[in-house]
Amino acid sequence: MSRQPPVSLLFDEMFSPVIADELRRRGHDVIAVAEDPSLRASSDADLFAWARERGRRIVTENVADFRPLLLADPRLPGVLFTSSRSAARSARAFGAMIRALEGWILAAGESPPPPEAWLTPSR
Questions:
Q1: In this structure, are residues 1 and 108 in contact, taking their beta carbons and an 8 Å threshold?
Q2: pTM score > 0.85 for this model?
């Protein structure tokens, strides 16, 4: 199977930049809204457009707001949804979240995911 171009992610404001920092340290193209003051004030629609223009998939728990945006324009790169029930964002769970995200990134490099994808936690 051929290797796909690297996956670029944008974490919405719910995610700690600590997670983005660690994934970048591991060589992944990840940024967090919390790291960029100009993005923090963005509406969901503006953030979706910003990410799409830059080829970044948004990582968010906000299904209610981002799924309608994705359904209206389902082109890649899309959205990676998470759930606080299966992938906690607390500082104690950063390790599990980082492992799950890195696993997803590596798998996406082998086979492109659909526009709507869900993160499965890694134990």
A1: no
A2: yes
